Amino acid sequence: MQYLIPIAFLFATLAPAVSVLDDSALVQAAAHVHDGSLGSKAEDTAVLEEEAEEELAHGNLTKYGDFLNLTVRPVYGPEFSFSFRSAMRLQVLMHALSAKLGLQLSSTTFTHSGRELDPKSTASAFGIQDKAVIEVSTPTLAAEAAAAKEKAAREAAQLERRRAVQEEEDRKEAVRSEKRRRVAKRVAKVAAEQKRKHNIELKDAISLTFINPNGGEGVTMAVKRDNWMDGYLELVAKRLGVDRAKTRFLFKDNDG
């Protein structure tokens, strides 16, 4: 098991065509692990190179496991996709992601489903499957995330205040518009009545208002001065819904 990471390094170096592993990041990460695990033992390195060349010649990649397409989600910043092998130690993944994000490995926390990654475990042994999410956090990223959240909250509060002010202004404008509409309606009604009276005067007529005895809406009618009233009264009775023969019409001027 201790030679798994160096072999992964040699595989990534000798087989650049397998680019799905995010070559540059994994090669650099594996190099760090390689330096720490083998030191400068030339004999061990030569043996590993020979084994790796033999595996590549026979297409034997089973030791590295299946490809995993992971989603890396920093606590602050955009998430991205990253490819890995199920049989590689997670230490390689942690080194690669630290380098890719420009973070210090010693201050970076990697978790999956709330569990902190074990650098000595493999992805498969740790339960990481294809399309899994890896969360990345550091004190700096956490502080930036908190600051961004606070800023977003302030902006949301400001937006809400502006929205409330705009709603109040819209409400007041609606009230003003309704007042203007009512005034315009009254003015138009007065103007129409004045025009009607003027037209009546031009026709040598007068305006009579008949009050509904049943309490309903009355009838206003222009009557020519020289015409007989009987025809008008028949029409008024019909509009008021009363029997003309049983109805008496009494005159009352504006002075009472």
From TrEMBL:
Pfam name, any one: Rad60-SLD
Keyword GTP-binding: no
Signal sequence, renumbered to the chain: 1-19
Coiled coil: 142-169
Domain of life (superkingdom): Eukaryota
Alphabetized InterPro entries for the sequence: Rad60/SUMO-like_dom (IPR022617), Ubiquitin-like_dom (IPR000626), Ubiquitin-like_domsf (IPR029071)
Keywords: Coiled coil, Signal
Record PROSITE patterns: UBIQUITIN_2
UniProt xrefs under SUPFAM superfamilies: Ubiquitin-like
Domain named Ubiquitin-like: residues: 68-136
The protein's name: Ubiquitin-like domain-containing protein
Organism in which the protein naturally occurs: Alexandrium monilatum
